[in-house]
Design brief:
Length: 357
Amino acid sequence: MQIRYEKLQKLLTEKKLDAVLVSDGYNMRYLSGFTGATGYLLITKNSKTLFTDSRYTIAATAQAPDYAVVEVDAARDYCKVLNHVLTAENIETLGFEANQVRYSTYEGLKARLAVKELVPLGGELADLRRIKTAEEIALHRQAEHIGDIAFEEILKELKPGVTELEVAAKLEYIMKMNGADKLSFESIVASGVNSSKPHAEPGHKKIESGDFVTMDFGCMYNGYCSDMTRTVVVGKANEKQKEIYNTVLKAQLAVLDMLKPGMPGKAYDKVARDVIYGAGYEGYFGHGLGHSVGLEIHENPRFSMIEEDIVEAGMIMTVEPGIYIPDFGGVRIEDMVVMTENGYENLTYSKKELIEL
């Protein structure tokens, strides 16, 4: 936690702030260890205070031992207790997370907090989380390992007559039985023509012989996310399905062959897009190639057509090209990797060659 605190102090200096008010739950956890859903961190140049209500004070004291914990209630609301610290330390410029605070909340803070200026911050606090430590990478590795176990087990359950919802439920069960805290996002299970929707919600549709089945799923392990996608065919794949699948696989492998830090996100995306477009599927790969992963499932930077940020060693990234044909079906193959100084480590071990069940 000390390194994270030092990063934040550097940000305070760069932004010429006396203090910062942290309200985003992921940033609160990153900076303090507190996992509760409600509260604020107030970090000044001299103190660290966590404000929350009685539902979370016991947990906060245990999880954030470096922070003074202040309980809030109806008589002593957030602005009142915040003002005790703000006035005691003569805080004049206070940064806040403008992309996370509702306008009505901002208006209340502006009217009641004892500071001269509220300074809006964009993604600067989330950016502190971009480069993962060895400990964070180990947690991601275990989360993705749980996903690999789930994929191997779910293959035994895929057959005609099973619904998408049943598959999604079994994926969740398997991951939790193997140590997951919870899902990192709601699982996508899409069969047949539904697989042409990149973010299809699982429904009551029954899997049929000959269907593509795309499964995009992940879990959290000690707060850190995993993310993987595999597409299989229940029954025998036809020639069109094989062509689409092998094109997506070729695109992903082309990216993995050149993957190393030091380039903007759009450079990696172009490699996959060139393969897919070159095979005649321009217009059928609408999303970006991938995204960073951390405490939150979608973080920055991205692998996208417009991403200018440089990908650096220590970032966790997904590589997930896809092709989606309306009224036919689609394929996505996704691995999660950690960028190293000279390349990457693939955290996903599940088979990628076309599986016919």
